[in-house]
Specification:
With 212 residues, the chain is of the alpha/beta class. 34% of the residues lie in helices and 19% in strands.
């Protein structure tokens, strides 16, 4: 069975303190619990969680869903999106099994990036070392009204906005991510078609919008 790598790249900078980080922790736990009830996800999905503020850390490497233990993240310090992108690219390069003439490797990873979008470093510079070809679908969720949407669109065309950082809205985001992972694993199992755009994922809930 080919693996479907899924990367959660989560901003844990100071803007996420308090209720937002608590909702993020709960959202990750709910995501994992839900995927454990999905037979296709159990067969194919390997999940990794990478956190970033001014430091980037792979909290959990690619792990089978039934073994994944949701961590307790703590928010502090600033936002370095560029550093996080470089780290993500290097990590995927090392972890994702590539297809060769002798063996079929993993499916291209799907990646969900959640950030307040106010980077303390240069995203443009980081993108020179960010290998987009490693990934299938990359979705960036811009959290808060001050997120710099145009900068985030340098990463991917699949940018969505979550204006309110409430427990309900963040919970809705993680429910959508869960549904997206489940749908992708089912599509791969049934049709062997890789997902590359947000149009191939479930409809966005009310809390999430596609910025103009």
């Amino acid at each position: 069975m080919r693996r479907l790598p899924v990367y959660l790249l989560l901003d844990i900078s100071g803007s996420m303190r308090g209720k937002p980080i608590n909702a993020i922790n709960q959202g990750v736990k709910t995501l994992v619990d839900s995927l454990r009830t999905d037979p296709f996800a159990l067969e194919t999905v390997f999940l990794s969680l990478i956190s970033f503020n001014n430091v980037v850390e792979q909290v959990i490497p690619l792990t089978e869903i039934y073994k994944f233990q949701a961590p307790c993240l703590e928010a502090k310090l600033g936002t370095y999106v560029g550093k996080a992108l470089k780290f993500l690219s290097q990590t995927a390069e090392n972890e994702v099994v590539k297809t060769t003439t002798e063996v079929k490797g993993d499916w291209k990873p799907i990646t969900f990036i959640m950030t307040d979008g106010r980077s303390g470093d240069k995203i443009e510079k980081a993108l020179k070392e960010f290998n987009k070809k490693l990934f299938g679908c990359i979705v960036v969720c811009a959290v808060g009204q001050e997120a710099k949407i145009e900068e985030l669109r340098l990463i991917t065309d699949n940018v969505i906005r979550l204006e309110e950082m409430t427990e309900e809205s963040i919970g809705a985001y993680f429910n959508w991510v869960t549904a997206s992972i489940s749908q992708t694993s089912t599509v791969l199992e049934m049709r062997s078609e890789e997902v590359s755009t947000i149009k191939e994922l479930p409809p966005l809930p009310t809390w999430l919008t596609i910025p103009t």
